Amino acid sequence: MKRVKKFLTVMLVFAMVIGVFPTMSASAATKTIKDYVETSNDGVVHLGMNNKKLEDYALEDGKPFMSGDVEEHGESDLVKVTFKEDGFFFLGGSVTSNSVNLSTGYAYIYANASKSNVLWKSEIMRKKGGWELGGIPVNKGESIYISCYGQTGFGNPTKYNFYASFTPASYIAKPTKATVNKDGTVDLHISNVLKDSIGMRVRYAVGAVDTLRVARNEVKFFQTDREEEPGSIITLPKAGTYTLYVSCNFLNNAYTDCVLIVNTNDYIPKTTPKPAAPVAMYAGTKVVIGVAEPGATVAVKYNNKTVNVTADKKTGLYIAKIATALKKGASVDVVQTVNGIKSISCTVKVTE
């Protein structure tokens, strides 16, 4: 009867741990484009489209971000776009006209409302089906200004359509850890968040560089990275702050980019915390249940034998099945390893 009671207690604790943790992650609200982008018009900005998906959407007569008529030497209204997160902004467009002249119009992205600082300029072909697309990295809290300008020979009136997409940097890549090498260089691991991409490349610039300078091509980037599944490792000259330009590639020549400002010291592991005492460990059973750091490797040692298990990546829950039944008063040692660094041991006595 006592053994049955112990078994039921273990199962109850297990059920409580399983029941509590998933509800924590499930309660997170799903974000929409309005959580990331604010515009001065009511146009559509898509969340997370790469260049090819945005082009396909436009050619299938999707709803534009900006549209209207523009006269020869005329300019459309200026639309302001403000970003609430770092990321990458795509702008694609086309114009249509009854004019027989093969004239062009221009799409502009400005850094300010006075139009004195051009970040991007692209020709938009007049003929039906013509398409131009470009993109720039943007920082949280910054605004850009967009307009269409009619060149000489533009048919009057000429219809323009712009399409837009924003991808938060957190959707693209995430630094995970940094390792200092013997020569003082630092290997920074970058995780590829976009699971459907086929590859990722990272370039770096020494120091923190705002994305306006990147958009104006004022920054010299270096590249010394190698592919890692699922991401990349970039070797930096030394520990410190860097601006990273991350490019993810997809099939059919699709891509999306972002800029990250990273201090490698934030990703160099210092210590791994001591694991908490197991939540269930009773004499007569062969199971040790506990909660460690999410994704940690947990080593449970009992009777001079060690069992290694991996803690759940979300909840940190681990279940170690040992070879011999636990005895009251015997010691169980638990050690967790995170990013290659072991914690000190948590030693606990077995209870009834």
Per DSSP, the total helix count is 4
Integer tally of domains: 3
- Spans of at least 5 consecutive residues whose pLDDT stays below 50 are 1-5, 7-28
Please give the radius of gyration in angstroms: 28 Å
Bin the helical content.
10-25%
Supply the helix-strand structural class: mainly beta
Question: Roughly how many Å apart are the termini?
Answer: 13 Å
Q: Strand order across the biggest sheet? A: 1-4-9-6-7
- Let me know the number of strands: 24
Mean pLDDT across every amino acid position: 85
Strand content: 35-45%
Topology as H/E string? Answer: HEEHEEEEEEEEHEEEHEEEEEEEEEEE
Largest β-sheet summary: 5 strands, antiparallel
Oligomer: single chain
Q: What's the shape? A: elongated
Note down, in words, how this protein is organized.
It is a single chain. By secondary structure, the chain is mainly β. The chain has three domains: 33-58 and 65-95 and 106-147, no CATH class; 171-263, no CATH class; 276-350, Immunoglobulin-like, CATH 2.60.40. The protein is 12% helix and 44% strand. It has four helices and 24 strands. The protein has helices at 2-26, 51-59, 169-172, 211-215; strands at 37-39, 45-47, 66-70, 79-83, 87-96, 104-110, 118-125, 132-138, 143-150, 158-168, 173-180, 186-192, 199-206, 225-228, 231-236, 241-249, 255-263, 287-291, 297-302, 305-310, 317-321, 331-338, 341-342, 346-349. The strands form six sheets. The protein has a five-stranded antiparallel sheet with strand order 1-4-9-6-7, with no helix packed on it. Strands 2, 3, 5, 8 and 10 form a five-stranded mixed sheet that branches. Strands 19, 20, 22, 23 and 24 form a five-stranded antiparallel sheet that branches. Strand 11 (173-180) and strand 12 form a beta hairpin. Residues 1-5 and 7-28 have low confidence and may be disordered. It comes from Ruminiclostridium hungatei (Clostridium hungatei). Keywords: Signal. Residues 1-28 form the signal peptide. This is Bacterial Ig domain-containing protein.
